[in-house]
Amino acid sequence: MTELLTAAQMRAIEQAAIDSGEVTGLELMERAGQGVVEAIFEEWPELAGASGRGASPSGSPEYLDKEEVPFRAVVLCGPGNNGGDGFVVARLLHERGWAVEVFLYGEAEKLPPDARVNYERWTDLGEVNDVSVCAMNKGWSCDLLIDALFGTGTTRALPDLGELFWNMEDMVDCFQVEPLHEIGRPAIVAIDFPSGVCADSGRDFPHRDEHWRFSASAHITVCFHQPKLGHFIGDAVEKCGKVVNKDIGLRPSHEWRKSNWRQICKLLQAAHQDWLRKLTDQNKFGNGHSVVLTGERGHTGAARLAARGALRVGAGLVTLCVPEDACQEVASQVTSIMMKTVDDAADLSAALEDKRINALCIGPALGLDRAKPLVAAALDAGQQARPTVLDADALSAFADEPNALFAMLHEKCVLTPHGGEFARLFPDISEKLNAVPTKGPAYSKVDATREAAKRAGCVVLFKGADTVIAAPDGRCSINSAHYERSAPWLATAGSGDVLAGFITGLLARGFDPMGAAETAAWLHVECALKFGPGLIAEDIPEQLPAVFRDLGL
Ligand SMILES: NC(=O)C1=CN([C@@H]2O[C@H](COP(=O)(O)OP(=O)(O)OC[C@H]3O[C@@H](n4cnc5c(N)ncnc54)[C@H](OP(=O)(O)O)[C@@H]3O)[C@@H](O)[C@H]2O)[C@@H](O)CC1
Ligand SMILES: Nc1ncnc2c1ncn2[C@@H]1O[C@H](COP(=O)(O)OP(=O)(O)O)[C@@H](O)[C@H]1O
Ligand SMILES: [K+]
Question: Which of 366, 415, 418 to mutate for ligand 2's pocket (most ligand atoms within 8 Å of CB)?
Answer without folding.
Answer: 418
